[in-house]
Amino acid sequence: MQHTATISRLKAAGAPPRLSGLAQWADRHFKWLLVAPAVLLILALSVYPLLFSLVVSFINYDFQVPGHAFVGLKNFERVVFDPVARWSLLLTAWLSGISVAIEFVLGLLVALTMVRSFPGRGVIMSILIVPLFISPVIVGQAWTLLLQRPFGPTNYILTQLLGQEVTIGWMTESPWLYVSLIIADVWQWTPFMFVILLAGLTAIPPNLYEAAELDGVNAWQAFWAITLPHLAPMMLLALTFRLLDAIRMFDTIFIMTGGGPGTRTYTASYYLYTVGFTQFHLSQATAGSWLFLIFTALVVMLLVRRLLKTEPV
Amino acid sequence: MNDHEKRDFQAGLEAEVDAFMRGETTRRTFITRFGQMTGMLAASGPILAMMTDWALAQQKLELADAGSPLGQAQAAAMKASMEGPADGSAFRAVEAAKAHSGVTLNMTYEAGLQALDPRNFSGPMWEQLTGMKSNVVELSNPDQYSKAVAEHIAGSGAYDVLDISPAWTPSLADGGVIAPLDDYIAKYMNPADLEDYHPLYKALPTYKGKIWGFFDDGDMFALYYRKDIFEDPKMVEAYQAKFNAKLAPPKTWEEYAQIAQFITDQMAPNIYGAGHFRKAGSPGNQFDFLQQYRANGGKLFGDDMKAGLVSDAGVKTLQNMIAANAASIPGNNELDAVSLWAAFLTGKVAMIYSWPPSGRMAANYSQSATAINFIPQSQIAGKVGYAVVPGNPEHATGYNKALSADSANPEAAYLFMQWACSPPVSLARCMLPYALRDPYRISHFKSELYGALFPSAKEYLSNLNNSANVGLLDPIMPGAQDYFLSIDRMCTAVWAGADPKASLETAAAEWNETTDRLGVDSQKAFYTEFLKLPGATADNTVEKLGMAVTL
Fold it and tell me: Can you tell me where the transmembrane regions are (chain B) (predicted)?
């Protein structure tokens, strides 16, 4: 009966048109057709450039040296033996490490403060996350306006607060230029940490805290015994994401210090940009990018492995 | 098929049929819609391009008030293009270009203010005269070269006219990116218009005996100083008492630092003696070092093409620059060109040396254009004097208009270049308040109309001409940007406290590496060609070669 009913309903709907040869083929290979655009896009935009860049790193690809002769490991050698490259790698690790650490601590503190409801919380949260939506170039420009002498107000304000004249060269004097870069980065990215950690905190079941309270556990103990273990995966996730982003630090440096003085604020990204797009030594920059990619991949591997191992209590 | 399988099949079929009946997505409709979406995506590119073209379309021709000097210059440019003289380069270019009506020329310009001239003035005027459209491609400074080379390698023919720094001419000419103009010049140009170039600029587009473009921007550094301070009787008296000399614009770099320090000592914190754009990456360091180093007798390269930086001249130059920095406004080493202008225009510093727009801004002429309103209004208008930079001023980069070798319309592109750089049209372009094109023709320096732009414009033009007479050119050879970068790094490291001698050695090592990379013999050949140009060294300036222009 059921079969008859179904057939009659199908008849009422009209017979489907006959499929053409192409349509039949498409029907047979439907699953491949579905993934084909994505695969083609990945091949065109990722795999081909990646392979091409590998080729470029072994040949001469310099706007000012005619021809594309095979040069073996020469481009890699130039990067490895370039003291500026080595310094930029160190600075990248140092700057990103310190920035992310500060952002993490501040983000956690703010998240812990904001996890409970209080009047005006929504407004404060909205204000806190505004820096996330600002382009890093604008962030760099804004901090330049605040810090740059003679027009920036920072030294004036510090002079008024401290009662003695402050004449810090925020973007030209060590260690202040690093402080400036870290301040700009922390200002922009602490909200990122805050948002992720807050999400983690709100996911912790409140009954755990209620039970702890009944057992007479104080706030510090609750933090160590409940919050930290439950938040650990989110912490690692936030640190991983942020660290991956921080090691690409470029925009604020480009705007605030121009890599100077000398090469003191050259990060790996800034170094590669300079070699590739100021000096036009594209093959050297490509070789450097590969080396940087290997270093980054190692860090990522370690972090992701740790992330995958972490399980909530 | 057992009962269980039959039930499953029936349930699946039911669900499919119900979905079909309800008009929900089936595999078939999915494929159809996916195809439609792909089609729309494919079509969106051209649609977006059309919208972009519309958004960035050529502006309507912007003309100044007919009674103003600029308005008169624009009218004269129009008249010369339409009515002649018949042998004028502008008129001949327009007449020949009418055959190319309907063609669109793609021309690269540095993004920002530089591009406003072809967008608002020369592009629309050219279209009105010839029916040719212009598509202005705005690029950042490095991209003006990287894109040109990349498009040449791809053979895309994306550009017709390229705006390039003269330093790039040899590389781009040898690389086949730009084409020589000699045949076109012989066919279309009035030779007298080539002779109208100031001698410092005339030879700039010449390489290996051919002409690879038209020089189009006289970026000559000049000294701008506060006349009211230099003429203040109290200051004059105090300077006389301290140094037994007259307070006047400095003639040497030692004197420059001395005067800057004197003014700072007398007037800080209200006014400081000097200011410089010394921020890393801002090109002030390289230009300043190169002009002082060569004025101090320094040689860029030895006979073996080893860098000549580690020398007494190098050390002396850096020491002079350090002394000048110490006498300057706080934050001197953090300033870029725009913030230096802001410091000067707001009356905070007494002396700066920079590009020619400094004079136009100081007179408040540039600020009449809304496009340039990020520059503060001048509080020192009428108080500014002009002088030649001590020793020899740097011609800090400049621009050539070059013909892309891959242009699909090379003749049309050439004709635009000839017209835009012709005396009457280039004069009007240089007079635009928002433009950053600076006078470079003898007729510009002598122009009554330009001289009427602001009260001291004649003195300003005269000083630019005098500066060009003793001016020095940036090195014009491959690797120039590498050499410049090393100087910038060296200078900023020294400003941050590094030892000058050690920094010179580091920079010299980088120079040598660049030379080795590009080929010592090849670089030597380029350098030898460069040394033939007037203004390549302090010993063969235009003046020393007996070619000085007197207005």
Answer: none
Inter-chain CB pairs, A–B, below 8 Å:
112
Does the structure show a pLDDT above 90 at A16? Answer: no
Task: Please check whether residues B241 and B120 belong to one and the same domain.
Answer: no
Nearest to B330 among A3, A62, A150 (CB): A150
Q: Which two three-digit tokens encode residue B192?
A: 């007298």
Percent of chain B with pLDDT over 70: 96
A255 SS3 class: helix
Partner-chain residue, chosen from B17, B280, B342, that has the shortest CB–CB distance to A9? B17
What whole-number distance in Å separates Cα of residue B172 and Cα of residue B179? 9
Residues A236 and A304: their CA atoms lie apart, in Å, by 9
pLDDT in tens, A53-76: 999 999 998 877 778 889 999 999
- Do B352 and B410 have their domain in common? no
pLDDT, one tens digit per residue, over B410-428 is 999 999 999 999 999 999 9
Two tokens, residue A16: 């489907």
Distance CA A65, CA A57 (A): 15
Query: Rounded distance, CA B368 to CA A310, Å?
Result: 64
Quick one: B195 and B285 in the same domain?
Answer: no
- B436 Cβ neighbours under 8 A, 6+ residues apart: B113, B114, B217, B355, B357
- Give me the residue from B13, B334, B479 closest to A172, CB to CB: B334
Q: What is the pLDDT of residues B500-548, one digit of tens each?
A: 999 999 999 999 999 999 999 999 999 999 999 999 999 999 999 999 9
d(CA A175, CA B416): 53
Query: Which residues, in sequence order, are bridge partners of residue B179?
Result: B403
Six-digit token string for B431 = 């007079």
pLDDT score of B440: 97
Residue position matching structure tokens 């109309």: B449
Asked if residue B375 lies in contact with residue B112, where contact means CB atoms within 8 angstroms, the answer is no
Q: Measured between CB atoms, does B479 come within 8 Å of chain A? A: yes
Q: Give yes or no: residues B374 and B405 share one domain.
A: no
Same domain, B305 and B235: yes
- Confirm or reject contact between B489 and chain A (CB < 8 A): yes
**B322, containing H or E segment:** helix B312-326
Walk me through the domains of chain A, giving residue ranges and CATH numbers.
79-309 (1.10.3720.10)
Does the CB of B499 have a partner CB in chain A at under 8 Å? no
CB atoms within 10 A of CB A152: 18
| Residue that finishes a domain, picked among B466, B491, B515 | B466
User: Which pLDDT value is given to residue A68?
Assistant: 85
Nearest CA in chain B to A175: B496
As given in the structure block, the two tokens for residue A19 are 């499929």
What was the ipTM of the complex prediction? 0.83
Indicate the number of domains in chain B: 2
Domain boundary among B466, B488, B516: B466
pTM above 0.90, yes or no: no
d(CA B504, CA A254) in angstroms, rounded, equals 24
* B308 inside domain: yes
Kindly report, residue by residue over B190-239, the tens digit of the pLDDT: 999 999 999 999 989 998 889 999 999 999 999 999 999 999 999 999 99
Collapsed DSSP state (helix, strand, coil) of residue B276: coil
Number of other residues whose CB lies within 10 A of the CB of residue A183: 19
Indicate the angle between helix axes A282-309 and A48-56, nearest 10 degrees.
130
- Asked whether residue B6 is domain-assigned, the answer is no
CB contact under 8 A, A262 and B490: yes
**β-pair partners for B354:** B222
By mean pLDDT, which of A74-78, B150-154, B350-354 is the weakest?
Answer: B150-154
Instruction: List B384's β-bridge partners, or say none.
Output: B226
Distance CA A128, CA B475 (A): 51
Model confidence over A99-108: pLDDT tens digits? 999 999 999 9
Give the residue from B12, B196, B210 showing the smallest Cα distance to B88.
Answer: B196
Which 3 state secondary structure label does DSSP give B26?
A: coil
